[in-house]
Each structure stands twice: as structure tokens, then as C-alpha cells.
Amino acid sequence: MTPPNELVPGMAFAFRKTLSVAEQALFTGISGNLAPLYVDKLKARDAGAADLVVFELAAAALATTCLNRLGGATRRIGLFDVRFPRSLLVGETLEARAVVEAVDGDEVRCQVTGARVTTGQVVFEGRATLVPFEGQG
User: Fold this and answer.
1) For residue 104, what are the contacts with CB-CB under 8 A and spacing of at least 6?
2) What does the record list as coiled-coil region(s) (predicted)?
3) Which long-range CB contacts under 8 A does 14-17 form with residues at least 24 apart?
4) Residue 55 half-sphere exposure, CB side, CA atoms within 13 Å?
């Protein structure tokens, strides 16, 4: 049996969430991003979107939930590098996933992905590294 908080290659965690208009508004407030695709439904539709587009970083933030569940209270994200091949619309459900690829000393390298539940289309993909948390103060 693997001791608690010991990660090995192949371990994974997935998390699904439907991103709502209310959450989009909260992220707007946090980020200050007022780009029309994200906050103006008419302009988003004029650009060819069926609805508001989810902030890319809000979608990728679901991967941080997966990373946290893998890393626990003793690790934090030291690297988060993702690309966004497709957009996600408000109201769509995304499944984020983190998979441990390698453990190198105290660093844990993971693959992260996010895909539409309905079609499996990848919305984001990349990598992340978990590093030890070093308490402050």
C-alpha cells in the first residue's frame, strides 16, 4: 500500500464542473477581464459563439483542484503550463484531470487536461509540477 501523500506515476484525479454565468461573473470580478467574448453575450454571438466564452484560466483552474487532491496539504503548484486548443462555453461541463507522470525527489510532474464531457474535445492541455510547500511566517 502507498503511504498517504506519496505519489507514484499513474496516479490520477479527475473533477467535473458545469461553469455557470454566476461563476463567470465572479471570475470577471477577480480578474478584471472585461473582454467582450467573456462578458457580452451579443458580442460573443456576433463573433460566432453560441454563448459567452468561459475564461480560459477559469477552465484551467479546475485542474488545480485535481492537483490539490493529488498533492495534499504538503505540496503546492510550482509550474503550470497549459495551452488552449478550443474554447468552452458558459453552461458546458468540463472534466479536468491530472495524472502523475514522474516523481523526481520532491518534485512531482503531472499531465493536466480539460475536456468537454459531451464531446471529449480537449479545451486545455499541458503540464504542472507539484513542489513541497514551505511554510511562511
Assistant:
1) none
2) none
3) 14/66, 14/95, 14/96, 14/97, 14/98, 15/62, 15/65, 15/66, 15/69, 15/95, 15/96, 15/97, 16/93, 16/94, 16/95, 16/96, 16/117, 17/62, 17/93, 17/94, 17/96
4) 21
C-alpha cell at 69: 487532491
Contact call for residues 100 and 12 (beta carbons, < 8 A):
yes
CATH assignment of the domain containing 118: 3.10.129.10
- The predicted-structure confidence for 31-66, as pLDDT tens digits, reads as follows 999 999 999 999 999 999 999 999 999 999 999 999
- Dump pLDDT digits (tens) for 62-91: 999 999 999 999 999 999 999 999 999 999
- The reply to whether 3 falls in a domain is no
Alpha-carbon span 52 to 36, nearest angstrom? 9
- CA–chain centroid gap for 22, Å, is 18
Query: Is residue 1 in a domain?
Result: no
Are the C-beta atoms of residues 128 and 67 closer than 8 Å to each other? yes
Find where cell 467573456 sits. Answer: 38
